[in-house]
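Lecture notes, structural biology module. Today: joint structure prediction for complexes of four components.
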Amino acid sequence: MAEDQKIKEKCSDCSVRELCFPMEITDADMTQLDVLVKTKIKVRKKEYLYRQGDEFNSIYAVRVGFLKTAITNSQGEEKILGFNMSGELLGLDGFANNKYESSVVALHDSEICVIEKNRIDEISQTFHPLQNCLQKILSTEIVRNNNLSISMSSMNAEQKISTFLLNLGQRFKMRNQSENHFILRMTRSEIGSYVDLTIETVSRTLRKLESMGVIKIHSKLIKIIDINKLKENLISCQT
Amino acid sequence: MAEDQKIKEKCSDCSVRELCFPMEITDADMTQLDVLVKTKIKVRKKEYLYRQGDEFNSIYAVRVGFLKTAITNSQGEEKILGFNMSGELLGLDGFANNKYESSVVALHDSEICVIEKNRIDEISQTFHPLQNCLQKILSTEIVRNNNLSISMSSMNAEQKISTFLLNLGQRFKMRNQSENHFILRMTRSEIGSYVDLTIETVSRTLRKLESMGVIKIHSKLIKIIDINKLKENLISCQT
DNA sequence: TATTGGATTTGATATAAATCAATAAATTTA
DNA sequence: TAAATTTATTGATTTATATCAAATCCAATA
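The predicted structure, tokenised, for the full assembly:
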């Protein structure tokens, strides 16, 4: 962990203004919020932002990059809980027991804003909207997980992979990147862990979608040829 | 929904002292917190506490009873997210979008403390520990969901049912009820929805555990004969 | 640039759980 | 209390996906 800290380089200032805080606040409020972020760090590919069990001191906001959040279970197997991209917050599970319950690793060089817990406490004492904001953020995470669990469990392999690709594309789109032409920064095995399929089934399902003319794959590069077909496919599969 | 409101009877005062708030606070603090709860309501078996989409005004604490939390998906199918018993908080998903994202139904006559959102906001402005408390509660819910998703996905039917029974027993134990002798207040179908198995598989698996001499079932009544065997079974199944 | 090791693909086979179907038990309602 | 309805059990069969195994691709590195 000490090494990790060394590697994370500090970089220029990081404004919360650039982040996707889910609340309606004025510019004046925003300026207040900027003080939340004091440091920005770089986390290079394969490096950890934090590890399961680390003491909880900060939450993080992804400025640029791509990361994964995972838990390691008692048998040492890794389960991917999600993939994280710019504007998203990390470390929210730390509030529970004052330690992180998951690990976050960069799958691509990333820049991360550090939001210290102390700073949050400090500021929210005088600036009340921040409390509500945090409540919203945490609750949204609960809802997201609930929705994920309802959907994934009832889907077959084709639906899982289709949903996964559509979701990624949508999130890229929101960041002004191509919705239907992107790089999968994770391995097939990581996809499998996330959607609960074996690596072989992930591979076969991608190939199947390709043979259907819905997508095109060149190793890590995905091109969604017919996004409507992909969505239809999703619906028509459902029983 | 109007009918539901009618049916919910107000009852005598309800103290937060009796609830399981996950924080270390003094008695003096506690007295402050008691003001959070103004009303207590009764929700009879099969009645809704709130419905998916209802406006979010309060969170709830179960005083006594047994309930289920569920989402209905776009195809009208119900997915059980959890079963709720005394001391547990409900409605935390409401903070996200100011409406409940799930429904809660009593599976047994229940008494529920109402904690109004306004009241929380009001009090947390002057009494700061409440903010941290709420952060902890919300984050704990995130962690719980994460852990659930990691475990359920990698388990076979026997492990799922064993885990389910052990978890229920443990929670009864914490409430000073029998750990190994209790009533399943939910249907087989609801169990199945919760652990992601069909009703037939739930039935067969319960029967299998009975034939192994681990449990004893008389319709809704469960008796855990050999709790260690049930736990072992859990471990030995794991690959 | 060749070598090495990990990641991916592809095929053959096994299997756990779903589905289909029919009966039985338990609850609700008349 | 009987009839009706819902819930649960049990058996036969199917199927989607896991598992096993081998080949190929790709990226790191020496």
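Point to remember: The radius of gyration of chain A is 19 Å.
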